[in-house]
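Please fill in the sequence for the structure shown.

STRUCTURE ENCODING:
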């Protein structure tokens, strides 16, 4: 338990956490705006998937360049990111649908599914996608 607390404190001291959060807020605004717009045009699940795809795209490019300053090749990062976010999008859409069926509140469903995706995304990016693998090749 102490290890987890030390790790969380380390994350709070790391500027990457705040950069990632800033990009996340920007991606959230874009995601939510597109989602609300598309709800009037297409099915809820398709709107959620498309909006999440936009947010994921924004997150990948800005986090790769600004937050994590990845030294790996673009396509290596992209492959890992896509694998991570295929899972995150599937989970996001499923949680959104599940919560909506239970609570019948589109906004609550959106934010709960977003929260789950954020957890998957943050630790996936930090520990796997943008981990500086260039140092590992010796």
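FILLED IN BY: designer on duty
SEQUENCE:
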């Amino acid at each position: 338990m102490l290890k987890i607390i030390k790790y969380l404190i380390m994350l709070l001291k790391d500027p990457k956490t705040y950069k990632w959060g800033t990009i996340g807020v920007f991606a959230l605004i874009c995601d939510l705006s597109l989602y609300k717009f598309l709800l009037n045009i297409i099915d809820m699940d398709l709107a959620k998937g498309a909006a999440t795809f936009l947010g994921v795209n924004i997150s990948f490019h800005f986090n790769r360049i600004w937050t994590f300053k990845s030294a790996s090749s673009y396509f290596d990062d992209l492959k890992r990111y896509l694998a991570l976010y295929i899972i995150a999008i599937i989970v996001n859409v499923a949680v959104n649908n599940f919560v909506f069926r239970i609570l019948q509140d589109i906004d609550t469903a959106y934010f709960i599914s977003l929260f789950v995706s954020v957890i998957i995304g943050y630790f996936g990016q930090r520990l796997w996608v943008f981990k500086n693998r260039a140092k590992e090749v010796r």
